[in-house]
Write a sequence for this structure.
């Protein structure tokens, strides 16, 4: 492989890497819905007005 073709290959890989990393944060900001029921550990009765937080989220 000569120098111009190596340079083109490296430029192509850098451009591809830039495109992939530019799209990654967009996927991380998608909203998801979690559904379920929170129950008392002893009685197994549903708890009303419960807020659930996920670690590592804002």
């Amino acid at each position: 492989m000569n120098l111009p073709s190596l340079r083109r290959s490296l430029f192509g890989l850098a451009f591809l890497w830039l495109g992939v990393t530019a799209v990654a944060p967009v996927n991380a900001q998608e909203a998801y819905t979690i559904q379920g029921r929170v129950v008392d550990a002893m009685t197994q009765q549903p708890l009303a007005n419960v807020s659930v937080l996920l670690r590592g989220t804002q």
Notes: The chain is about 45% helix and 0% strand. The mean pLDDT is 79. The chain has one domain: 1-50. The radius of gyration is 24 Å.
